[in-house]
Structures are given as C-alpha cells and as structure tokens.
Amino acid sequence: MIEVVAGIPVRCFESPIAALHHFTLHPQACRLVISDFDMPEMNGAEMLRAMVAQRPELPAILFSGSTKEEIVASSLPAHCRFFSKAGGFSHLMEAVQLLAAA
Predict the structure, then answer these.
(1) Residue 69: its pLDDT value, please?
(2) SS3 labels along 40-62
(3) CB 54 within 8 A of CB 27
(4) Segments forming the whole domain that contains residue 34
(5) Does residue 15 surpass a pLDDT of 90?
(6) Which residues are paired to 9 by β-bridges?
(7) Are the beta carbons of 58 and 30 closer than 8 angstroms?
(8) How many domains does the chain divide into?
(9) How far apart are CA 102 and CA 18, in angstroms?
(10) Angle between helices 44-54 and 16-25 (to 10 degrees)
C-alpha cells in the first residue's frame, strides 16, 4: 500500500520479511527506509543490514523505544541513523525530510 505523507510517497509493510522481499525486487525504487527495531521474524537492524548489503548508499532510520538498542545502532551502516522514540516524532520527521532530500 502506498500513502503520501508530507508530500513523500510511503510504502508500508506488515513484516520485515515482506519489506525485504519487496526491496530485493525493487531496490532502486526506495529513497529511504524507516524501521522500528523490535519486529517479528527479524529486528530492524538486521533488515537494514540486509538492504544495505544490496544497496550500500541507502539512507535509513532505525528507531526504538528502548535504549538498549543504541548498542546495536552503533554498528549500523554509514547511511543509517538511530532515533529514540523518547526524543519525539518531530525529530524523526526532520530526519526524514533531510535524508529524503539527499
């Protein structure tokens, strides 16, 4: 399903496996990936690493409500950023606009 948020087309997935499958079929169609850390089947960092292995320049945002994921976030690829949900979603939207414009 594609929605438009703040002028940016957004595709949402029910699982990281579905997102990774779509990305594998259409890697150049994605300008930015936003993922929660805690998901079924695989965590967001694992999904992002698999995507970046296919497309190293892919910008991505990983966010979480738990600070323990900051340890995992420190090992993310260069174009990936970590955000805590505690920081509020206004910071997330600023990052989206910045990374989508790049």
Answers:
(1) 62
(2) CCCCHHHHHHHHHHHCCCCCEEE
(3) yes
(4) 2-101
(5) yes
(6) 4
(7) yes
(8) 1
(9) 26
(10) 10
pLDDT per position as a tens digit, 22-59:
999 999 988 889 898 888 889 888 999 999 999 999 99
Q: Could you give the 3-state DSSP secondary structure of residue 96?
A: helix
What proportion of the chain, given as a percentage, has pLDDT over 70? 82
Q: How far apart are CA 80 and CA 78, in angstroms?
A: 6
Which of 88, 71, 85 has its CA nearest to residue 35?
A: 85
Number of H helices, E strands in the chain: 4, 5
Closest by Cα among 27, 44, 31 to 97: 31
| pLDDT of res. 64 | 80
The tokens of 44 are what?
């967001």
Instruction: CATH number of the domain at 25, please.
Output: 3.40.50.2300
